[in-house]
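Escalation from tier 1.

The customer reports that the assembly of two entities below gives different structure tokens on two consecutive runs. Tier 1 could not reproduce it. I'm attaching the input and our single run for tier 2 to review.
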Amino acid sequence: MTPLLTTKGLSRHFGGLRAVDGVDFTLMPGEIRAVIGPNGAGKTTFVSLVSGRIQPSSGAIVFDGADITGLPAYIRVRQGIAYTFQITSVFANLSTYDNVALPVQRTLSDGRSKGAVKAGVMTALERTGLADRAHMPAGQLSYGHQRLLEVAMGLALKPRLLILDEPTQGLADSEIDNFITLVREIAKNATVLLIEHNMPVVMQLADRITVFNAGKILAEGTPEAIRENAAVQEAYLGTAP
Amino acid sequence: MSEASPAKAYALHLGVIALLFVLSFVLPDYYHGLLARIMVLAVFAMGYNMLFGYVGLLSLGHAMFFGAGLYGAGLAVIQLGWSVPLAFLGGIACGAVLALVIGLLALRTTGVAFMIVTMMFAQVFYLLILYFATWTGGDQGQVVPQPARVLNFGTTSLDLTNPTVRYMSALALFSLVLLVTLAIVRSRYGRVLVAIRENEERTKMLGYDTFSNKLIAVVVSGTICAASGAAYALLFGYVGSSFASVQYSILPLLWVLLGGAATTLGPLIGTVFMYYVIDVTSGYTSAYLLIVGVALILLVLFFPKGILGTARQRWLGWLP
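Tier 1 run:
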């Protein structure tokens, strides 16, 4: 099976800081992959490179067999890479409906019918449990609901690779359970790349885990293997004195 | 944009058009002529609003698009002897091409740089008019001769210098542009424009080519402004460089801000209001600009989003 996403020697430097430093990464189709690591490890920079929000200093990104390193972000989105933001950035002054209509109307290939947009929007809203809030301005939703709206917008893009950047940050425990169910459902049709700090969520969801530290991949493996990995424990907890 | 109450919105717009039609028969001569002028300039404001209100791009150079239409149509009649409909279309085409070129260059910038770049291009346009005074008439301007301002349809002919014909022509253009802008802002494309205004980065990450979308908006905006300029030349018969000066880049911004940015009827309300205040106050005192200034300050204090913008926020959420 060909990998959905590979990066080769991917690097991004900010001045002297090597935020992402020579990363070789492979993601198979259908996987739920978690990316973890201490603050400042380069996780968000890494997925920003993949989604095209920032350009790499060197290295290559291959998506579904084609080199996408030089493509602008909006074309990568059209090829199926969706990115949901770490800092919630829904369109606060637009209604929840309009927020989701934006990605829906772009992915519609059959074109003109108003009913198709409406059906697509309501499906995405129902999957995320926001259907009854469709006409509220997105800025008036609770924080947890805004996070879900981000996911609904990502879903509406019908992505092949959905990148979720700290999706459970700020969610209540009850909301997290629903969220885990939601991600499992999404993963039936898409590959999920998940940056997450909440370890119980990571352990429940991920097929494999990649650990970043100081811009490099420190370890990669199944949740059990990562849990037992001495180098990972050291990176998170510090060395024993 | 929203799915709610399209019927209400269309009814309101058709009502406004009907009201303007009826006003033609009841207004005294002076106001009749003034309102015809206001409707043409409101088209200018609507074109400006397309870009400023909906896409959030503040241009300080829209006088060049108005001027392109004005000179494109006016000089076609004066220098080339074109007929009125042809000259009108020629003026619009001038504005559309100019907007495409300016858009390609100016959209490489955003924010303050965009304001400065558009202003500089408009200044170049203005100076070119003065430089080529042999053809343009320079700062004196030129009068479009009355015999040339006649529309011929076979045996019947319409004299654009006739007040009623002039008023109805202005109303026709105004109505067309009003309904077109209403359709645009309620369309999917309108939704994308607002998304760009609200958060361009996020819009890109939904797969939209924001540059192309903004470029189309600049061309649509420039074309509408050129239509206003072309109509002005043909209906009022004067082509002058003052219409391309920086003052005419600021005025549409002012009209739109007064009436309410990103409202379809705001540009009309703002233009009417501004002319009305100037008209009333200049009857009492020669220091009328002082009173206009005070009125503007009060408006900004109590209607920060413009007349219709604030009305929509407080009472009429369904206003497009």
